[in-house]
Design goal:
The complex is a heterodimer of chains A (about 110) and B (about 110). Chain A is an all-beta fold. Chain A is built from no helices and eleven strands. Chain A is globular and about 35 Å long. Chain A starts with a strand and ends with a strand. Chain B has no helices and eleven strands. In chain B, strand 9 and strand 10 form a beta hairpin. The chains are: A mainly beta (about 110), B mainly beta (about 110). Chains A and B meet through strand 4 and strand 5 of A and strand 5 and strand 10 of B.
Chain lengths: ~110, ~110
């Protein structure tokens, strides 16, 4: 099993550009989530999904969209990148909110 | 007030030492508690769940005090490989199936 995979590993964007961060898991987990991690702030929940077709907002959802058309995939879309979105983004999955398995992260720099 | 608060450290300890971290949480309705470990520039990984009766896994012992709303992690006989950031995690606000992460406590074990 590959576990949770994320692409790309690194990305540089200009302000105003849009992009999609990809996340996939092969463990048949129903629960998936996106976090961002900034220095001194810990991980903050952006969006989460409890199953295909079901998504909900987390603590910091503004500027991000998600969809969950399959159990395996949970992409995160940045609509119009801003320097404040410079961060490390982690995707996670689990059977519920118990043990979470994290992907390796995407490091995003917005200029 | 943050939902989950931790002393950021760093805790600098010699090999073989015993070290303890505490974490406080604000949501008295929280039911699930965890310690995750995060190595530098890597994804978080579950270290152990925390149960009301306390639990032990080798050199690691976790305790929960619901009355005072704090969680502790004790590491005995510290190894160089224990150097990492330890994240305190609780399930989040009522109605949201999500985890809330503390900012982490950094441990540096020195030879």
């Amino acid at each position: 099993n590959a576990g949770v995979t994320q692409t790309p590993k690194f990305q540089v964007l200009k302000t105003g550009q849009s992009m999609t961060l990809q996340c996939a898991q092969d463990m048949n987990h129903e629960y998936m989530s996106w976090y961002r991690q900034d220095p001194g702030m810990g991980l903050r929940l952006i969006h989460y999904s409890v199953g295909a077709g079901i998504t909900d907002q987390g603590e910091v959802p503004n500027g991000y969209n998600v969809s969950r058309s399959t159990t395996e995939d949970f992409p995160l879309r940045l609509l119009s990148a801003a320097p404040s979105q410079t961060s490390v983004y982690f995707c996670a999955s689990g059977r519920g909110t118990e043990t979470q398995y994290f992907g390796p992260g995407t490091r995003l720099l917005v200029l | 007030r943050k939902e989950v608060e931790q002393d950021p450290g760093p805790f600098n300890v010699p090999e073989g030492a015993t070290v303890a971290f505490n974490c406080t949480y604000s949501n008295s309705a929280s039911q699930s508690f965890f310690w995750y470990r995060q190595d530098c520039r890597k994804e978080p990984k579950l270290l152990m769940s925390v149960y009301s009766s306390g639990n032990e896994d080798g050199r690691f012992t976790a305790q929960l005090n619901r009355a005072s709303q704090y969680i502790s992690l004790l590491i005995r006989d510290s190894k160089l490989s224990d150097s990492a950031t330890y994240l305190c995690v609780v399930n989040g606000k009522a109605g949201r199936r999500a985890l809330t992460f503390g900012s982490g406590t950094r441990l540096q074990v020195q030879p």
